[in-house]
């Protein structure tokens, strides 16, 4: 079994080599910085999940996990006044980011076995990387260990953890349509209950209930959740946000549709920002979270601790 994990770690580490200087996908990597594009616009929306904590705890120490794109998450945090350290299982692009001054601190880390001491940072951010880990829950406990105030996750939503009958019925109908080959014919892909990546991991999605249980088990006082629909279309990253294009129109229409059916409760949003707070937050923090659209949940405390 350990060989399986080591293979996954190795494949993930090699992933960014092709995006480095001289690599086959260097130009794609450079496009990540191109402002005024739909890709950049969507990246900023995802980055904003940390804004309430950045506002409430100015100058806090942050660790980013799975931040292999030059440390872009750490760069965003630092631009908002945080002290940020970027980490990833590959330091290929992190070294380039540091050399160019894009980030100030980084280290090569396995998320499932962080080298830092307990409470080395105030917050830990793991954005769009948790679902890549072979053992994501182990990584979450590591993040909670090194972050003294809390952890922020932004990941795909597990749509098979149902809130009510309507969502279960809608998902069942999607699978009926899928079985008829309609999705494959029109979209070129099928709906799958379970998916795997070619770098060797199961695509792990999160739910509110799962995150809540982690916090309850450790007797933490608060969690907060925010559902988000940021629809991605292949090849749309470099499309300008200004002017007309079919790719832009498709992104806008599908996002609007997803927002509508999420609002109606037919399905959960495509992605979720989840925050676990280890201590009682300040009033400013609670206000900032609610103002940003988070649903803040005060958890019962373990009476035997």
Describe this structure in words.
It is a single chain. The chain has helices spanning 2-15, 26-31, 38-47, 51-56, 72-79, 92-99, 136-146, 165-179, 182-187, 208-217, 246-263, 283-291, and strands at residues 61-65, 83-88, 106-108, 121-127, 147-156, 222-228, 271-277, 295-298. With 305 residues, the protein is α/β, with parallel strands linked by helices. It has one domain: Rossmann fold (3-Layer(aba) Sandwich), CATH 3.40.50.150.
Major sheet strand order: 3-2-1-4-5-7-6-8
Work out the count of structural domains: 1
Number of helices: 12
User: Got a strand count?
Assistant: 8
Mean of the pLDDT scores? 93
Share of residues in helices? 25-40%
Query: Whole-number radius of gyration?
Result: 20 Å
* Main sheet characteristics: 8 strands, mixed
* Net shape: globular
Q: Write the element-wise H/E pattern from the N-terminal end onward.
A: HHHHEHEHEEHEHHHEHEHE
CATH class type: Alpha Beta
Tell me the distance between the termini: 36 Å
CATH architecture: 3-Layer(aba) Sandwich
Kindly report the CATH topology. Rossmann fold
CATH superfamily: Vaccinia Virus protein VP39
């Amino acid at each position: 079994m350990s060989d399986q994990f080591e293979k996954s770690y190795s494949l993930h580490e090699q992933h960014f080599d092709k995006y480095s200087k001289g690599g086959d996908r260097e130009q794609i990597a450079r496009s990540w910085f191109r402002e005024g594009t739909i890709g950049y616009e969507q990246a900023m929306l995802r980055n904003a999940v940390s804004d309430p904590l950045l506002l409430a705890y100015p100058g806090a120490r942050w660790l980013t996990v799975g931040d292999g794109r030059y440390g872009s998450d750490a760069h965003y945090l630092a631009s908002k006044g945080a002290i940020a350290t970027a980490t990833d299982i590959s330091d290929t692009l992190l070294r380039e980011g540091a050399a160019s001054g894009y980030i100030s601190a980084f280290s090569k880390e396995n998320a499932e076995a962080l080298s830092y001491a307990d409470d080395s940072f105030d917050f830990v951010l793991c954005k769009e990387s948790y679902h890549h880990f072979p053992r994501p829950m182990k990584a979450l406990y590591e993040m909670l260990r090194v972050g003294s105030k809390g952890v922020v996750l932004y990941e795909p939503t597990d749509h098979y953890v149902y809130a009510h009958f309507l969502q279960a019925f809608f998902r069942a109908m999607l699978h009926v349509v899928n079985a008829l080959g309609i999705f494959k014919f029109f979209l070129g892909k099928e709906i799958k209950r379970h998916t795997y990546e070619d770098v060797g991991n199961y695509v792990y999605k999160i739910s509110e209930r799962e995150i809540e249980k982690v916090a309850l088990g450790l007797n933490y006082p608060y969690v907060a959740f925010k559902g988000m629909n940021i629809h991605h279309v292949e090849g749309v990253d470099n499309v300008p946000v200004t002017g007309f294009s079919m790719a832009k129109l498709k992104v806008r229409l599908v996002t609007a549709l997803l927002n509508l059916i999420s609002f109606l409760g037919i399905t959960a949003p495509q992605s979720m920002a989840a925050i676990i707070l280890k201590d009682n937050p300040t009033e400013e923090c609670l206000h900032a979270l609610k103002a940003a659209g988070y649903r803040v949940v005060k958890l019962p405390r373990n009476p035997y601790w």
